[in-house]
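Hi V.,

Quick status before I head out on leave. The structure for the redesign project is tokenized and pasted below; the design run finished overnight.
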């Protein structure tokens, strides 16, 4: 069970830019401690950018992210599979052991107990016996199970998942959703970028709908209304990535 003193992750007037144009624009709100939240919106809405900013892999251009006293190493981040190089010659076990990276100096600092925990994490996602396989030989679903095992090994208070169920089979999706529900039951804060709105309605009690700016944030049924979805699509249709930089951001 995760410690009970987990605090909210808050964003205040957050702006994150690429080439001086906002991917996330003046976003404010909070992910309540222990909440299970889906982040949804049109393509290019800034969903991945938001997760990367929270994880600390993208700089903030304006506003702030308040982690409630958490350190970045206390945040587990699972990026999109497309962002990962599966051609690198590394075994399944060593991939999971990367979850210990902040605690050791390279693989030479990995203890027998750490390896045992990595094996337990693989067993928990149905990948026992695959420890010596190269990640390049795995199917998309198997590789996603390995990535979940790595996050499981990190044992973090906040878990960020970027399109965790994209392009994987239904059985793997169901198994990994069970793990997400387990994290939620342990009062971890789980934030997941998703595209399948029916999946969001069934499994995620809270939703952030964004189109670079905030459209709706709160209980899923109240956010995923037809009016809000139309508003998000309309906002996306009006994006102009060649427009002058926002004067408010330059102030």
């Amino acid at each position: 069970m995760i410690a009970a003193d987990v605090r909210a992750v808050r964003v205040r007037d957050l702006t994150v830019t690429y080439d001086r144009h906002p991917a996330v624009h003046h976003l404010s709100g909070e992910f309540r401690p222990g909440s299970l939240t889906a982040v949804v919106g049109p393509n290019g809405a800034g969903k991945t950018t938001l997760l990367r900013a929270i994880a600390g892999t993208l700089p903030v251009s304006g506003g702030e992210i308040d982690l409630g006293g958490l350190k970045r190493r206390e945040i587990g981040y699972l990026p999109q599979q497309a962002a990962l190089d599966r051609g690198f010659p590394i075994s399944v076990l060593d991939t999971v052991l990367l979850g210990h990276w902040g605690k050791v100096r390279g693989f030479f600092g990995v203890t027998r107990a750490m390896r045992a925990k990595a094996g337990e994490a693989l067993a928990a996602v149905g990948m026992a016996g695959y420890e010596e396989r190269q990640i390049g030989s795995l199917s998309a679903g198997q590789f996603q199970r390995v990535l979940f095992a790595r996050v499981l090994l990190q044992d973090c208070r906040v878990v960020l998942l970027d399109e965790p169920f994209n392009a994987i089979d239904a059985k793997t999706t169901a198994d990994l959703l069970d793990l997400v529900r387990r994290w939620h039951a342990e009062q971890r804060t789980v934030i997941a970028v998703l595209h399948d709105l029916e999946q969001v309605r069934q499994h995620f009690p809270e939703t952030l709908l964004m189109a670079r700016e905030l459209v709706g944030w709160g209980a899923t049924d109240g956010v995923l209304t037809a009016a809000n979805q139309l508003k998000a699509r309309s906002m996306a249709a009006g994006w102009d990535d060649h427009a002058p930089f926002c004067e408010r951001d330059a102030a």
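Above is the designed sequence. Residues 40 and 195 are 6 Å apart (CA to CA).

G. will cover questions while I'm gone.

Best,
W.
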